[in-house]
Amino acid sequence: MIAIVAHAKDLAIGRGNELPWHVPEDLRFFKKKSSEFVNVLFGTNTFNSFKGFRLAGRKMCLLSSGNDSLTSDYHFKSVSEVLKFSQSNEIIIAGGAQIYKAFAKHITRFYITRIDLDVDEADTFLFDYTDMFELCSVIETGDNYSIEMWVPKNV
After folding, report:
1. 93-139: per-residue pLDDT in tens?
2. What SS3 string covers 100-142?
3. Residue 68 confidence (pLDDT)
4. Which fold does the domain 2-152 belong to in CATH?
5. Per-residue b/e over 83-113, b at no fewer than 16 CB within 10 Å?
6. Confidence band (pLDDT; 50, 70, 90) for 51?
7. CB–CB of 114/120 below 8 Å?
8. Bond preceding residue 14 cis, omega within 30 of 0
9. What angle do CA 23, 15, 133 make, to 5 degrees?
10. Domain residues of the chain, as ranges?
11. Measuring CA to CA, which residue among 36, 37, 29 is closest to residue 5?
């Protein structure tokens, strides 16, 4: 499985169900990379953060155990349902924190934008992936960000 995320120095990924920064290069990379996949997986909070906005050319997949009335293209109730679906369908994991953690051991490529920023009052954080993953390549760098690909460590 493939995953994509952006985080601040302290692994913050959200504040008030929104990105706590605006880095256009990261948004462009997200659009480009997620467009390579038909299906983009979100948890409820991340799905809701789109406020009804649809990702052009991509199917929005929701993982939620609840009976959400959200308008996703696919609604999965469990990690095992997503894993079964992913056996015959490409899927990219796009958040949030609980979703990344739930699929961590299944991620084979992790596209990570590291934002050189301290976030005040962040309320959502990525797990410490550096124990499980190692830097494979740097894709792009800028004044306040680095877009990288990480892969599982050989244990």
Report:
1. 999 999 999 999 999 999 999 999 999 999 999 999 999 999 999 99
2. HHHHHHHCCEEEEEEECCCCCCCCEECCCHHHCEEEEEEEEEC
3. 62
4. Dihydrofolate Reductase, subunit A (3.40.430)
5. eeebeeeebbbbbbbebbeebbeebebbbbb
6. confident
7. no
8. no
9. 70
10. 2-152
11. 29
Full strand arrangement of the beta sheet holding 2-7: 74-76, 59-63, 39-43, 91-93, 2-7, 109-115, 145-152, 133-141
Neighbours of 124 (CB within 10 A): 21
Name residue 75's beta-bridge partners.
Answer: 62
**Helix H or strand E encompassing 145:** strand 145-152
For residue 104, give both structure tokens.
């961590």
Task: Read off the DSSP letter of residue 15.
Answer: B
Query: pTM here?
Result: 0.94
